[in-house]
Amino acid sequence: MKEVMRWLRSFRYAYEGLKYALATQRNMKFHFFVSFVTLISALFFHITKVEILFIILAIVLVIMTELINTAIEKTVDLAMPNQHPIAKIAKDLAAASVLVAAAFAVAVGAIVFFEPINRWFRQGKSYTINITAESVWLYLALVIVTVVVMETRFSHSQRLRPSLWMAIAFSLATLITMLTSNTLVALLAYSLAFLFLVMLYEKKNRPLSVSLFGALIGTAITILAFYLNR
């Protein structure tokens, strides 16, 4: 019985560590969000069991390396409160492990989801899309005006203020997606917009919800304006 209680206590400590990392580490929040979207996409596209296994492996690997990275950072900060070259090397090496795991996860996602997305994209493209240069500026103007109005309306709440840059980036990615019949080009466009999201999230001290809200607004307004203009 004591062994069982000790095991349950160890499990609780491990769970507390996971909760701490999720509550305090910005990168961990981002990893969990991407993992959630990836799993929902896996359900939507009905991928095979082997592909699901690789997706879960990639998710676990990224989260595990992020936990180890956090543990190493806290240990180094405790052992060396002042800046030291060796402390920097230890932190850089720990961060590199997360980078390698994330690169593996991106590769797995690209390989697993490309064909399902390609089939879904070609099935949905059953009509001719005609977007002129004038309509592009109109769509972007609508996105900008919407974001400015929302930022003014919700100026008291930072989390409800969408990012203008993210709205424009995802609006352009959506326009490229609607213009092209090439799934790879569309995925590359959204990949660039997503990299821009990551860059803003890392450089600016704003909640992740702000960037995601901006991306959602930019995409939704562009699609809505397109269907109204058909």
From TrEMBL:
It is found in: Cell membrane. It is a multi-pass membrane protein. GO terms for molecular function: ATP binding; kinase activity; metal ion binding. Substrate binds at R6, E66. Keywords: ATP-binding, Cell membrane, Kinase, Lipid biosynthesis, Lipid metabolism, Magnesium, Membrane, Metal-binding, Nucleotide-binding, Phospholipid biosynthesis, Phospholipid metabolism, Transferase, Transmembrane, Transmembrane helix. ATP binds at R6, Y13, E73, K91, D92. PANTHER family: DIACYLGLYCEROL KINASE. Belongs to the bacterial diacylglycerol kinase family. This is Diacylglycerol kinase family protein.
